[in-house]
# Entry
Amino acid sequence: MKDTLFLQFFNKTKSGYYDLCNGFSDTWDLCRQKGDFFWVEHEPDNDKWYDEQTYIDRELPINKGTIYISASYINQLFQAYTWATQYPDIDFIVGGPVAAERYTGQEGWNSVHFKVEKELPQNLMITGQSVESLFNMPEFSGNWRLEIPDAVPENSRIYFSYTLENQCYWKKCIFCTISQHYKEHFRKRKNLDFEFKNLDFKGHKIVRLNTGSITPAHIKTILPNIPIGDDIEYRFFMRAAKAETNALKQVVNKIGKKIPECTLGFGIEFPSDHMWQYLDKGTSMKEVIETLEFCTQTGFKVNANVILGWNNLVEQDLKDLEKFMDGFSERTVTTLQLRWLFAHPYTKIYETYDGVQNTIRLGPFNCGFNVMVDDRQKKLNLEAARIIKEKCTLKKVKLEGYKNLRKGQL
Ligand code: SF4
# Structure
């Protein structure tokens, strides 16, 4: 094995597919010239993710050299930190979403996912730059390639990313880390060749079309051209707004029934006009329902993401929530995912919400906290959870995350 490695993590998820955090696919040729690829199985049990003991007994195949790491999640970054303390003769250069997603403020650059509270080892570099930029190559310079880890069975399901661009064109929602991304690290794929169509893998492929929120232009150029088949499906996030819905309608008119199998993720956050205004979602109840209905009638699956834990709900929000849940037809939403509001350091939510005493730390990294709300707001949020559960049962919507609300404050 060479003394330069490009390390990517993978793990089997609770849903049974393998999540390949394939950060080096865009730079495969370049990395291959410089070193070897190396897959590491990431801890699958997320109850152990914040236990520092989880990361100490993971041996590396080299003792000196350089390891480039693609880290998608904070605990993968913490794994890199742990290795850096254990292997002083290896330089660790960590990129990937959790490292790269950053903004610059008065105190210099800061990650949008964590705050560094202690000095980092000298041999650990956390970077927002792509490998191409570190090696002075133009962006998206080589072939997109993906080697499947040996531990993944041939006929299983794999989930991997194909980057369209690494920001969000909307960039306004106040709780969102993506909205803060530093524009100097903006990457956008110009040639959409969908290279993953040549992947030599017999199982099922779930392709994440990676961008904060897909643009109307993407919808028009990508959907009519992406590979279709029984063994491939797509996932992406979209704003439930007029421009995107019109773009979808145009595409469907053009391609008719030959639409690719897609699950569209919608950040509903909290369905009321008051809350959407507060969050700067730039959309209204009418537009959202129209988008969701159109998707279902056409055959797209809808994954709606709702957040609870707000500290400013009013009675009218609950009425709007109920109206929203009553407003769409049965099975319009395939899955509704609930989560408790999490305050990432440096966000407006972090500065304005209570709960800092619950801060989650991994080594030197302050990851933020699950927000806390007062009794009155707890009651309103709890009532919102009850309405959602009841209506999901009625509308035959799969509800996920309800039990995890306990990890918040309900
Ligand atoms: S549309 Fe989505 S990705 Fe974009 S800023 Fe809002 S929440 Fe973030």
